[in-house]
Input
Amino acid sequence: MSLAMTDSTPGVPLLDVNRDNAPHRDEFLDALTEVLDSGRFLFGPDVTELENEVAAYTQTPNAIGCASGSDALLLALMALDVKAGDEVIVPSFTFFASVSCITRLGAVPVFADICPDTYNIDPESIASLITEKTAAIIPVHLFGQCAQIDRICEIASKHDIPVVEDAAQAIGAAYKDRPAGNWGTAGCFSFYPTKNLGGMGDGGILTATDAGFADRLRLFAGHGMRPRYYHQVVGINSRLDTFQAAVLRVKLRHLDAAV
Ligand SMILES: Cc1ncc(COP(=O)(O)O)c(C=O)c1O
Output
């Protein structure tokens, strides 16, 4: 007898996204109708408002919407000028996107050990892997639990190496009362539907304390174009659309009550 699950096998779904969404159905419909009627499907006011609200929620001065958490990571490394031959330290246990952003730029992922009790990157392993080629460190706040980010930032700042927090799974999490995404040069969040703050499609956002770096992230997310049709750098096209932003604003209002 086969033990494989089939489509007709009754089973417990890993996650029922509708359980979270159903109570807010009317709020979603109102917000989506407003976007539909406005005709502003990109760069609508909901995108700016969501950016402001995520900035406030993470207590970080700047937030920049983008198309996914994967793009957020890639944009952070692009804006840091990570290039072929550079090394980027990343945990040996994480989702693929924490690493593909490195290899996509021709840089080399250097895998650090994880702590056996949290499965998050071990700061002392990071310290042992730093070389002259280390261009960034990407701690991942896995399963909504922050890595030991104070110690990681301490090690990084001693060597003047930027920290890019992969906070894709960790909006709302904090370490010693300081929110995820607020510690590093950039914080990268995902709005994939199963995430803590899940949209109704793909989406992501970056946080950054430094206004100049935030501006650079926005430049890279918009084809490096500034002003229109003049391209300062080779960026990518990574936008958070207004429908997603409208949905996410509704969900952000209910996020603290949902956890
Ligand atoms: C740790 C981690 N990093 C990055 C990502 C990428 O996010 P996205 O699916 O929005 O591209 C995810 C989620 O899928 C993730 O769990």
